[in-house]
């Protein structure tokens, strides 16, 4: 999934404004991938070839920039939850969605912390997108719990926290390339009430 392929709606009306907006998003995507979500916004502006004042006209806060950058991926995750519910048994659907969420969450250093903070802060620009993820997780989790696939003593917030913690761990430089798969397998094993057949 490439967020740059389909930025969310809400671009400036003028063509030059749209180009600047898109250049800022591409620059942010590259900068955050290299330096994490706490990277300098001045560096984002420099890479986009604009002033920091121009960046702030388009994105008044770091969270507003992250919201726009991540919205496409988050929208896809919400849509995928509905698709998985319709096509797989409850346990397999949840596991498949967790794997996709883990990939998105591990995209940038600092992203898991940003998502978890936004979930707890209704005033955050990121809150509505993150709340949509919570709703998708809640639907998938409830079905898997009712079917007996997933342990009952778990809620959506705990599930998201566990996946984001695992995503943070996979970004640490000391781990091997396959650490993410290993962590994810351990997480899924810990969630299951009984074995789930691989998809």
Spell the H/E element sequence. Answer: HHHHHHHHH
- The helix/strand class is mainly alpha
Share of helical residues: 55-70%
Rg, rounded, reads 18 Å
Number of helices: 9
Mean pLDDT: 85
> Main beta sheet: strand number and arrangement?
none
Strand content: under 5%
Low-confidence stretches: 1-7
Span between termini: 20 Å
Q: What global shape is seen?
A: elongated
Number of DSSP strands?
0
Tell me what the structure shows:
- The two termini are 20 Å apart.
- The N terminus is likely disordered.
- With 199 residues, the chain is an all-alpha fold.
- 68% of the residues lie in helices and 0% in strands.
- It contains nine helices and no strands.
Quick description:
This protein is mainly alpha-helical. It contains nine helices and no strands.
Present the secondary structure layout:
Layout: H1 15-35, H2 41-48, H3 52-58, H4 62-87, H5 90-105, H6 111-120, H7 127-146, H8 156-170, H9 179-191
Helix pairs in contact: 1-2, 4-5, 4-7, 5-7, 5-8, 6-7, 6-8, 7-8, 8-9
Based on the model shown, name its key terms.
68% helix, mainly alpha, 9 helices, elongated, disordered N terminus, 199 residues
